[in-house]
Design the sequence.
């Protein structure tokens, strides 16, 4: 049975840990870390099988784990990812926006080859990435429009230099239009879907992003359009925010659990 180290004990990390503890993911959670020791202790208290709380994020991959699961932040990816691969552990990344930094992407890509390990990126809060990957060489345009309740966007870096008052929005309002690279930089915890889409397709500079704040919605909606020599592809995903953290879609959590379950299982694999 595979052993897992968990980096980040927030909403997503907690749900992954509970899925392991319940047996849904056939693995053992052996070690956890969070910058807040209180968060680590709170998580461990919910589990029947108690993992060890480590004192430093870099220690996670020094133990005999098969994979380290990052569910913390883009900064955590930049700080820890390379050492995980150097210690010859696989890595699952939830804060995919970190990979839109070209230097980070190149360093980690090379490390995967050098140390013969794999980085896993769950599809998160959107579907259709298998199709996008299949036709990436024939893509000519790729866009995503994300609509969320204003409270799901609060705290984003974008608003540090914006006059937009989220509390004053009374109807669907476009608050951002730009590239995926810009969007992920300005909304680092809100728009990981744009990072995943651009990495699957034509890159972050060529992927268009629109973000809409709608006070009348109770869902996170992602509308994706792709066109090129292959034809046209359009799909829309509506999913509910997690009850504990409105910035996180429930689908993103389920996607992470399924990716890890597949990693830990010997079975027929479906999809590209």
Sequence:
């Amino acid at each position: 049975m595979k052993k897992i180290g968990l980096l980040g004990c927030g909403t997503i990390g907690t749900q992954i840990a509970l899925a392991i503890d319940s047996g849904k993911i056939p693995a053992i959670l052996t070690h956890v870390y969070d910058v807040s020791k209180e968060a680590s202790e709170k998580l461990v208290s919910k589990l029947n099988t108690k993992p060890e709380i480590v004192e430093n994020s870099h220690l996670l991959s020094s133990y005999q784990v098969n994979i380290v699961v990052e569910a913390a932040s883009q900064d955590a990816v930049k700080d820890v990812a390379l050492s995980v691969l150097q210690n010859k552990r696989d890595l699952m990344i939830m804060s995919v926006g970190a990979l839109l930094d070209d230097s980070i992407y190149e360093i980690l890509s090379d490390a995967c080859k050098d140390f013969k390990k794999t980085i896993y990126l769950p599809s998160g809060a959107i579907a259709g990435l298998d199709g996008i990957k299949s036709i990436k060489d024939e893509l000519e345009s790729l866009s995503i429009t994300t609509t969320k309740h204003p409270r799901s966007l609060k705290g984003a870096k974008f608003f540090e230099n914006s006059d937009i008052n989220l509390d004053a929005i009374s109807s669907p309002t476009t608050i951002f239009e730009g590239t995926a690279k810009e969007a992920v930089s300005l909304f680092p915890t809100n728009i990981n879907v744009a990072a995943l889409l651009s990495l699957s397709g034509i890159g972050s500079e060529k992927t268009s992003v629109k973000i809409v704040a709608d006070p009348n919605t109770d869902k996170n909606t992602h509308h994706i359009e792709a066109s090129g020599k292959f034809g046209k592809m359009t799909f829309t995903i509506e999913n509910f925010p997690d009850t504990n953290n409105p910035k996180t879609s429930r689908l993103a959590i389920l996607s992470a659990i399924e990716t890890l379950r597949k990693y830990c299982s010997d079975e027929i694999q479906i999809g590209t």
In short: The chain has eight helices and eleven strands.
